[in-house]
């Protein structure tokens, strides 16, 4: 794996490899000394054109635990405000001599443009691009599901036959896109649940089933996992739905809906949550919720991704 | 003083017959077998097809205002290298071509350069803002004698303004060329809305945003009894609407760009901004429908929508990139590749869609005529047997944002003749000083 740009071009073998390496990394994170020397002497830059403290801190923790030198570069401006250009910033970093770029950008495809540009010739990890993809989020979600389902016996396993409902703003969600492709590759059955306004026009071409009715979807599919997506409140001003109350009533994981779920159903959310809008506190704070595990697993998965693209190794060589 | 006479030997005419063509001064003086002339420069046209000089009804020359992208000189050089002898220059310059002063400036720059007849297009509304009519009559009565009006780049979205414009230009036999794009349905739109946009996470530009405006405007043209031209049709649904309108007797003409005849939206998978264009590249079904419509006459003409942009506007992430592609140098080759090589049309049809009909729509009497004695010598010689990987060396435009770089295209322009003199000779652009000197000779009469 040279880059990690999209989950769509990751094979099942590579995906399981990454998840297995993340298991090793997770073991490191449970030790007293949470550090591996794997990337000693390598410099990784976190190039963030968009604010995301959560994702940046998670990558930074992963990089430091692998003993990499870390540069945080918060580039001002985005494609919209015409601040610093992607090209100039990247060429500056290339001149400094970095070994990998972790990029978050507001424009879909920016990491791919960077990877194929020739401006810099190092591995690129997509930390979220526009409404396109967020691959490490999908890997941490898959890791979390696998761990809950198989515990210590997770290694080598996919998610075959696991029923996942992804609920909310699919249209604008990079998390949803990365999850759809990765979950399909790992053998899961995905159902998307959303108002028709928040589904892509050509969603019928995706390897998923689609429902507009959350109660119906939960009752019919008896999902193993319900993944709630964050709703951007400004969407209602663009007539995607009338108001928050109606959205919450129809597509939120309300307390009532949550209690109707079987006790083994996992409740996931990529964070940050809008409590009372797409998810109730009853659901978010229950033992079925994986929200905090997701955060912890994010570090392990990002360590695995960095390890794979930077060392080219397929398994962790223990010290 | 006159320019050197030219004798074209053994060219294949659009109807397939072969003939020699003698050009003396600015005129074709003889067409027939076995012509000779002691004084004329001879051009061996064995194996070459001769067409009336191509006419582009939709060119962005960028001057005044955006000279870092293109100038009237470099844009008409690109035209000459692509076999065009006339271009209609779109109004979205800075300042906008919404007054007699600006259109006369563009006209003068074109005349001085001498590579092609430049016909300025006037804006429909002041500043392309869609609110108040531009000085349509002043532009029509200016030295530029504007007959085509367009807010291209923007849609005349207000139905009342569109109705008034359609009516008003009847005063001087003008035509409104509409860039059909419903603005509310295309807020922040980045590419065709469909399977690819869903996957790439790019905001969609739905077909209905084009089709709904065309449907509205053909009905307005019917109601007002006016003449309407639709720019760059890009969808199968638009073809259906135009076909219906023509059957109903509505006075509408339509154009398609070369890129919409060849390229599809899966090109965007690379996020390579050279493929970012407005209207966007569509599905394969749309491309096939556009080709059929061009062949059966539903679509009247091919126009390039030549849209130069500097490197920094394309060498960036997709969302930040500008819309548009250069197309003058490649247009004829793309039409040969997509329409002639596929057997959909012959060379007489190429002459019709790239010269005769665009000249007629634009009211340009000196161009797009049947090749015969007594007409102004506006000609292009094309070698249909050439196959080449299109490259930067095939461009004369100041900008290099061509989507065809590295793609194999059929056919190449060998020579272009404008007002009786060569602007492209032996597949190479003739130097600017030579061309402008010959243009000056013609201007002095
Ligand atoms: Zn246009």
Question: What distinguishing features does this structure have?
Answer:
heterodimer; A: 319 residues; alpha/beta; Rossmann fold; 2 domains; five-stranded parallel sheet; four-stranded parallel sheet; 11 helices; 9 strands; 39% helix; globular; B: 445 residues; Urease, subunit C, domain 1; TIM Barrel; 12 helices; binds zinc ion
What would your notes on this structure say?
The complex is a heterodimer of chains A (319) and B (445). With 319 residues, chain A is α/β, with parallel strands linked by helices. Chain A has two domains: 12-134 and 295-311, Aspartate/ornithine carbamoyltransferase (Rossmann fold), CATH 3.40.50.1370; 135-291, Aspartate/ornithine carbamoyltransferase (Rossmann fold, 3-Layer(aba) Sandwich). Helix content of chain A is 39%, strand content 14%. Chain A has eleven helices and nine strands. A five-stranded parallel β-sheet of chain A has the order 7-6-5-8-9, sandwiched between helices. In chain A, strands 2-1-3-4 form a four-stranded parallel β-sheet, with helices on both faces. In chain A, strand 5 (163-167), helix 6 (174-185) and strand 6 (189-193) form a beta-alpha-beta unit. In chain A, helix 1 (12-30) packs across helix 5 (135-150) and helix 2 (53-65) crosses helix 11 (291-311). The two termini of chain A are 23 Å apart. Chain B contains twelve helices and 19 strands. The termini of chain B are close together. Chain B is an alpha/beta fold. In chain B, strand 17 and strand 18 form a beta hairpin. Chain B folds into two domains: 6-49 and 375-444, Urease, subunit C, domain 1 (Roll), CATH 2.30.40; 53-362, Metal-dependent hydrolases (TIM Barrel). The chains are: A alpha/beta (319), B alpha/beta (445). Chain A binds chain B through residues 8, 79-80, 82, 85-87, 105-110, 112-113, 116-117, 129-133, 174, 177, 200-203, 205-206, and chain B through 190, 193-195, 197-204, 206, 270-271, 312, 315-320.
């Amino acid at each position: 794996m040279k880059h990690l740009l999209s989950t769509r071009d990751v094979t099942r073998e590579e995906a399981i490899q990454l998840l297995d390496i993340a298991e090793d990394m997770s073991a490191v994170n449970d030790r007293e000394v949470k550090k591996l020397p794997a990337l000693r002497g390598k410099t990784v830059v976190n190039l963030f054109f968009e604010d995301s403290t959560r994702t940046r801190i998670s990558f930074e923790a992963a990089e430091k635990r692998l003993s990499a030198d870390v540069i945080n570069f918060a580039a001002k401006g985005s494609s919209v405000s015409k601040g610093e250009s992607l090209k100039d910033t990247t060429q500056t970093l290339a001149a400094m001599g970095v070994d990998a770029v972790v990029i978050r950008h507001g424009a879909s495809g920016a990491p791919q443009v960077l990877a194929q540009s020739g401006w810099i010739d190092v591995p690129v990890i997509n930390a979220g691009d526009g409404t396109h993809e967020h691959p490490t989020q999908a890997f941490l979600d898959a890791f979390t599901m696998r761990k809950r389902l198989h515990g210590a016996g997770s290694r080598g396993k996919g998610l075959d036959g696991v029923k996942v409902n992804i609920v909310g703003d699919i249209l604008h969600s990079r998390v949803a896109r990365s999850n759809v492709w990765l979950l399909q590759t790992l053998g899961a059955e995905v159902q998307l649940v959303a108002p028709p306004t928040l589904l892509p026009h050509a969603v019928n071409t995706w390897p998923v089933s689609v429902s507009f009715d959350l109660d119906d979807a939960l009752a019919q599919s008896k999902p193993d996992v319900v993944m709630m997506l964050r709703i951007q409140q400004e969407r209602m001003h663009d007539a995607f739905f009338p108001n928050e109350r109606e959205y919450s009533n129809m597509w939120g994981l309300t307390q009532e809906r949550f209690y109707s779920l079987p006790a083994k159903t996992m409740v996931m959310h990529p964070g940050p949550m809008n409590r009372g809008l797409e998810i109730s506190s009853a659901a978010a704070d229950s033992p079925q919720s994986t929200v905090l595990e997701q955060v912890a697993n994010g570090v392990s998965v990002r360590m695995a991704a960095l390890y794979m693209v930077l060392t080219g190794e397929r398994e962790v060589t223990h010290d | 003083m006159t320019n050197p006479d030219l004798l074209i030997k053994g060219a294949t005419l659009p109807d397939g017959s072969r003939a020699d063509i003698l050009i003396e001064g600015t005129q074709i003086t003889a067409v027939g077998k076995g012509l000779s002339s002691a004084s004329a420069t001879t051009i061996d046209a064995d194996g070459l097809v001769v067409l009336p000089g191509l006419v582009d009804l939709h060119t962005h020359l960028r001057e005044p205002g955006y000279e870092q992208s293109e100038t009237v000189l470099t844009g008409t050089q690109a035209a000459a290298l692509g076999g065009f002898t006339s271009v209609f220059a779109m109004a979205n310059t800075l300042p906008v071509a919404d007054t007699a002063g600006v259109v006369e400036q563009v006209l003068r720059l074109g005349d001085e350069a001498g590579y092609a007849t430049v016909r300025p297009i006037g804006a429909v509304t002041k500043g392309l803002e869609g609110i108040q009519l531009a000085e349509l009559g002043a532009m029509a009565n200016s030295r530029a004698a504007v007959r085509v009006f367009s807010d291209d780049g923007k849609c005349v979205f207000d139905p009342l303004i569109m109705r008034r414009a359609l009516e008003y230009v009847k005063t001087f036999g003008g035509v409104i060329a509409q860039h059909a794009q419903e603005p509310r349905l295309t807020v922040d739109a980045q590419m065709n809305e469909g399977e690819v946009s869903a996957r790439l996470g790019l905001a969609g530009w739905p077909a209905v945003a084009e089709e709904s405006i065309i449907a509205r405007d053909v009905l307005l043209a019917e109601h007002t009894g006016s003449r309407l031209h639709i720019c760059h049709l890009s969808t199968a649904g638009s073809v259906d609407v135009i076909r219906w309108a023509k059957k109903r007797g509505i006075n509408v003409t339509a154009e398609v760009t070369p890129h919409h005849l060849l390229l599809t939206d899966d090109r965007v998978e690379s996020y390579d901004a050279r493929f970012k264009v407005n209207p966007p590249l569509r599905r394969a079904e749309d491309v096939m429908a556009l080709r059929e419509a061009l062949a059966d006459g539903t679509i009247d003409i091919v126009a390039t929508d030549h849209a130069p942009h500097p490197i920094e506007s394309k060498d960036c992430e997709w969302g930040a990139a500008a819309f548009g592609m250069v197309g003058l140098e490649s247009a004829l080759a793309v039409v040969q590749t997509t329409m002639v090589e596929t057997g959909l049309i012959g060379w007489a049809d190429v002459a019709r869609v790239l010269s005769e009909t665009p000249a007629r729509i634009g009211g340009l009497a000196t161009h797009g005529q049947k090749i015969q004695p007594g007409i102004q010598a506006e000609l292009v010689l094309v070698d249909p047997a050439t196959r080449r990987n299109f490259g930067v060396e095939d461009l004369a435009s100041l900008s290099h944002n061509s989507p065809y770089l590295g793609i194999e295209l059929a056919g190449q322009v060998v020579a272009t003749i404008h007002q009786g003199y060569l602007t492209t000779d032996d597949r190479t652009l003739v130097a600017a000083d030579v061309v402008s000197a010959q243009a000056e000779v013609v201007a002095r009469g």
